[in-house]
Structures are given as structure tokens and as C-alpha cells.
Amino acid sequence: MASGTFLTAEWRKLAMAQYSVAPEVLAPYLPAGLELDLFDGHCYVSLVGFLFDQVRLKGIPIPFHTTFEEVNLRFYVRRIDPDGTVRRGVVFVSELVPKAAISFVAKTFYEEPYATLPMRHAIVHGADGLSVAYEWRHRATWYSLAMHAAMLPVAIAPGSVEDFITEHYWGFTKRSNGSTSQYEVKHPSWVVYPVQKTEISVDFGALYGERFAGLNGRQPDNVLLAEGSAVSVDSGSRLD
Q1: How far is residue 237's CA from residue 239's CA, in Å, rounded to a whole number?
Q2: For a surface tag, which of 12, 63, 94, 235 has the fewest beta carbons within 10 Å of its beta carbon?
Q3: CA-to-CA distance for 171 and 23, rounded, in angstroms?
Q4: 49 CB neighbour count, 10 Å cutoff
Q5: Tell me: the pLDDT tens digits for 112-131?
Q6: pTM summary value
Q7: Cα angle vertex 207, ends 105, 230, to 5°?
Q8: In the chain, where are the structural domains located?
Q9: Residue 240, pLDDT above cutoff 80
């Protein structure tokens, strides 16, 4: 394992629904030293459900924590280094998992916005295509993100919104002391399944706060279902 690698895993069947929002909606969540990354003038926030599999921390599988679901709400940012290098990444508004230990470590040591909720998923390869669904329970209500797609995946078109959404390889975190931490996520480019139907049942206001209540009942501006791949996440550092 490469030096500095904190986590290795596979991210599989990533269902991603993109909503265009006003930049001021995300202003309170923007870490220092970053700017919003726009696509064709649009500021996107994504609801993402996927399966974490074969999880290893520092090369070690943790019993009962190697496979689990995650549902997150994220947006897109970039940092321009003094030498002109552009790092494009994501910031998480919320990360939901069914494992309390994962949430505890991420919140306590990394200040990532994790929470623990009951979750379940279904991945079905049927005669009429691929169906993927993620569900999570908040209080007494089950919410869901589900997609049905063609069975055969295709390459992502360069310069497309799908290319923009998936080609962000850094994670940034707003720390409580005002600083910003960063970590690199490495994975190959993904293929996507052509989505034929999407069903989303989410109370964004209840889950993520009133700033996001305007997404309730809205059709997403873009959806994609990515196969995913093996990934590695480095140990991270603070921005200068």
C-alpha cells in the first residue's frame, strides 16, 4: 500500500442526482481557501447513494465494517494553488452511513459531517435492465433514491456534465477552528449506465435544513448511475 493511504475500498453503483442551486445556498458550507466550481454557470449540489465494499483502514479490514451503504449530499469546489495548479474537489453537507463506528471516527478525528441512520439497498440485474435503490430512515420515515438503467454501461463523454460531476478528486472539510483540511481520492474514470427512470423520495428540508427545502418535489437537473471502481483515500492534510 502506498505511503499515506488511509483507506482503500470499492465504491459501487453510485446513483447521483444533481440539482442546480443559487451559490448563496452553499456559502455557509464553503471552506476557507476554496471557491465554488461551476459547470456552464450552474452551481450543483448532488444527492449520492452508493455501496462501500471491501473497506480497509491502513490495509486492515475491520470486522463488520467492510460493506455498507452511504448517502451523501455534496457540492463542487476548486482550489487554485500559488503555482496555478487547480485542484477540483467536493465538500460534503451530510454523509449518512448505517455504522456508528464509522460516524464516530469521521466526526471526532476529521470533523466530517457524518451521521448514523438505518439503511438498506437493493441492486437487481433484471431482464429489462439494472435497478439500484438506496433507502435510509430518518425518525419514522424511510427516504429513497432509486434508478433503473440500461444493462450495458457506456463511457462518459468528455466535457459533459457527467464528466464534470465524476472528475473531482479531492475532498475538502471546513474545520471548527476555521481552517480547511484536504485529502486526495484516487480512482480511474468511471463508466455509467444510461438511466431510464429515477424515483426520489426525500424531504431535503428535514434532512439537511431549510436552505435545501426548495429541492423538495423538484426533478433533478441531471442524473447518472456510475459503476464505480476501487478507490484509495489518503490521510489528508491542512491547507497552508
Answers
A1: 7
A2: 63
A3: 19
A4: 27
A5: 999 999 999 999 999 999 99
A6: 0.95
A7: 50
A8: 5-234
A9: no
At the topology level, CATH places domain 5-234 in Acetoacetate decarboxylase-like (2.40.400)
* Of 6, 11, 12, 13, residue with least CA distance to 148: 13
Q: Is 41 exposed, middle or buried (0-12, 13-18, 19+ CB in 10 A)?
A: exposed
- Can you tell me the distance from the alpha carbon of 158 to that of 102, in angstroms, rounded to the nearest whole number? 35
> Which residue reads 486492515 in cell numbers?
60
pLDDT in tens, 134-153: 999 999 999 999 999 999 99
With a pLDDT cut of 90, the percent of the chain lying above it is 86
Residue with cell 433503473: 148
Closest CA to 183 of 90, 93, 95, 100: 90
